[in-house]
Amino acid sequence: MSFFDKIFGGKNDELEEKHQWNSIESEEDLMKAIDNSYRHKIGIFKHSTSCFISKTVLRNFEKKIKQSENKEVVEYLYYLDLLAFRPISNKIAEDFGVRHESPQFLVIENGVVVNHASHNNISLSQIL
Known about the structure:
Structural class: alpha/beta
Number of domains: 1
Distance between the termini: 36 Å
Protein name: Bacillithiol system redox-active protein YtxJ
Mean pLDDT: 89
Number of helices: 5
CATH superfamily: Glutaredoxin
Organism: Chryseobacterium oryzae
InterPro entries: BrxC
Low-confidence stretches: none
């Protein structure tokens, strides 16, 4: 592990945490997530894996999930790697009329974005 990984966390740290998310890696995954929003509010975290700010916000968000008394919220959280799946990110921005930012968290209920935030304004309370 490099010096910077010890301070800022490395790729392995990110992979360890990501297991709690439902991944969006295709338009089919996105459609399933939106379909789920008709049963329960869902959250989509759009993350840039190369951005220090995005990584920091993601880690802080994941800490809040672990501390939350509402453990079932995890099954309604989705993760989108912006660099690997940029066309899906663009589709989300276009379909929901929400300008792309990174990091970004969108809360969707009944197929409609009911809340969204970026950077340090991202909070677990948006979906609870």
